[in-house]
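ok trying this again, last paste got cut off
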Amino acid sequence: MRKYSWLIPVSILVFVLGTLIFLSPLVIPDSVSWPIKQKLNLGLDLKGGTQIILTVKTDKLPAEDKVNAVENNIRIIRNRIDQYGIAEPSIQRIGESDILVQLPGVKDPAAAAKLVHQAAELKFQLVAKPEDAEKFLNQVDVLVNANLRMFPALAALDAKDKALDKDSKAAADTAKAVPDTTSTESGIFKSLISTSESDYIVRRSDLTVVRELLLDSLFVSLIPKGFNIYLESADETIKSGSEPVKLYVLKSSVEVAGSDVEGASWEIGSSDNPNPQMASKPYISLTFTREGARKFANCTGDNINERLAIVVDNAVYSAPLIKDRIPDGKATISGQFTNEEAKSLAILLDNESLSAPIEEKSSNQISATLGTDSIKSGLRAGLIGLIAVFAFMILFYNLSGLVTDFVLIFNVGFILAAMTIFGGTLTMPGIAGIILSIGMSVDANVLIFERIREELAAGKSVRSAVDAGFKRASVTIWDSNITTVIAAFVLYQFGTGPVRGFALTLTIGIIGSMFCAIIFLRYIMEKTMLGPNKTTISI
């Protein structure tokens, strides 16, 4: 190749710049403003994450449906995880009815387990009128007082309050104060609830007690029928530690249920949205089925100027005022949640139910120490392999080997940059694929150099020997690499988890090594080692 078209140097420039740009997030701190934010994903063995083992309860299913139930559950779980955007999850069947789920980078086992095997329960319920709510809470207060010994936490709190009242009364008597006429005969339950602008609220100091009480089956069985008590959905990371949480009294009848929802998606509200809970914040958009749209239209049309609470898993996300009949079969859920929470909730509301019940066998976070050890071991193996290859090339091929080593560095960088661009995940098998691709890249260079040596031994000039060496070796390089790419494609198509990671890095490595060996290496040799008057070459 005596003359190069402009495509050759431009392609090399794009190759080098693209590699450097997409590797830059690895060395640039997060605090620095940089347009490239995407970083290379690390697998569960390198980064850590969450591992969950689930058991599908198939004992009540017919024998012919048991196998299909497990496979269908795996499909549904994979669909949920793929929608959430977790890179390179591993979901596989273990034995007859167990499912192993590995989620790299996920640090919250509880949230991951909920996404995998739970279904969000959505309900639309009307908020009780103020007079009805007050009457109901008074009835609950009386019932709790009558059965106080059955609720140890409330009994202890009541005893503490009485002790404080006794001390306050004694101090007041000593000071000959006027008796307090503001005291009421409310019991311990009503003392946990106060009002603010027609809303019931619970102080943060009492929130744990109220939550435990609402989850107590005995308390639920005691409260009068016709109404439910729910707390608002409050994100602890968003709300301050002193801010109270709203408590809602809802009519127990469900106006519209989750089964009436046809689809759900999460969106970000525009900055000029008049609703402060949606302006520049995540919310969930719901589309009802035909029957659900009819129910929602009737509910909103019959209850204008009343509040309709949107309840998900027994927590109220919002309770907007019904201003008009809504006939278009659409609604939104806004509340105190992050982008990840909104995305997860939308996935649960949008997906079909599992074919058979799933029981969580174990759920744990993979230790970060394991990830650190794996990274160190992988890097150590990779560095030893690179150093050995570099030394071999310099020892056997002199200056030409040194040029090869320079190109090889960019080949490794290209693999990592390409995986970053395509959202790939680096795992220990992936590191093995990189090391293998390095070996194959060197193999291509060895073929080229040996061909050049043969041509020089046959008496050809340096320029002719290099041209012939690259031309003759390229045919063999193409043949061997194409067959390897075919094998890698089969592994990626039919493999799972780490096997696919190995196949991906191997394929990218082959593409990079061919470019480096046939184009990049030759271009550098042309510019540095093949001058017009050169009669020898260091090879």
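PB: full thing came through this time. The first helix runs from residue 7 to 23.
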